[in-house]
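Fill-in record for Extracellular solute-binding protein.
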Amino acid sequence: MKKNNWARLIVMVVVIALVASGCKSGGGEGSKDGSVSIQFWSAPNPTQQAFWKEMADEYMKENDKVTIKVTPMPESPSSEAGIQSAIAAGNAPTISENISRGFAAQLAASSAIVPLEEFDGYDELIKDRKMTDTISTWKFADGSQYVLPIYTNAMLFSWRMDILKELGYEEPPKTYSEVLEVGEKLKEKHPDKFLWARADLVKPTWWARWFDFFMLYNAASSGNNFVEGSKFIADDQAGIDTLSFMSDLSNKDLLLTREATDPFETGQSIMMDLGPWTFTYWADKFPEMKYGETYELSMPPVPDDMNPENAKTFADTKGLSIYASATKEEQQAAFDFVKWVYSNPENDLKWLKDTSLPPARDDLSSNDTFTAYFEENPQLVKFAKNIPNAVPPIDNEKTVEIQEAIGKQAVNPVVKGDKDPEAAWKDMKDAIDGVLK
């Protein structure tokens, strides 16, 4: 049995045992006078831990019967493994952040986390935080919401505008044919340069598919779901179009798939999949990278028969979940704390300033609270505007196996020239169907 399956089995057995015995995991304690103590696990990131500690301290000043203990979650060998171990040992927190949609599906399948829409005040929370559109794409196959998204990075492509202008272009290409045309001109003028440098295109690393295949597939399919419950429901034409585009890029020698150091920054390539975390690195190592001058940002390109204005992309995003092993009083107290945090957009502004992670709000680019920040950081505006157009990871407990199949059966062999797109798509579907059985 695979390691992942053992972990799932352990989680399921422990949760069933806890429910059957009526005991709890130690997420916190209630008392006769109405006081309650909850444990909040933050992401293992100092800025996020500091944010939640400050929020907890402020909340406790207004709610003296609530004690919130904020600590970073264990991350050995990963935060997901740390959470699974805690559940198996009966030491789960009351609530934690850093939960992806795929991992949440695994936890939900084991009844380790609870549906958030069942809490008093849920609808008010979604309304107050202006996140109706954003959270709609997080709904799970059973119709419930097991994660409240905290931040959403709408993954974009960055283009070297200085090189594009040299080739005669004033804006990034938006369709497949426009991209290929740019690539052709690039090779004519600079034979040693590439369009896209991405070594992961020839590696089966499961999470890498978020930043290549799913960015392009979401754009080509208008955000069509890939898997729903135990069924593969992906858009066949969009999938084949995505792989065909990758094949064309490879056949025209526009992909650099060997390891390279900072190829985009040095001009070895002119297109890069990009998240907002990159800007801190650039400010330190490549101050010459200037938004609107050296580089520009765009949504993923789309097939020629689609309107680029309707493009979707992948959402690098994580959120909060509440654990089933806590008592009902502890669970509600944890939810009330989260509801209080997100009732004030100033708290989302603080989060944005502290972490540089865009809050998962529909109004991030239009709410006056954030105007001054975006005026000072214009490179983040397109990330904010496209939050409603960003599709979160698939909600399936076998996400790892599914995305490994995408790499091994489709993306990797197509880029290497070992399969044509149609055959690769069929092989991938067969492999995923086998995983889902």
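KEY FINDING: The chain has two domains: 3-153+316-391, 154-314+398-436.
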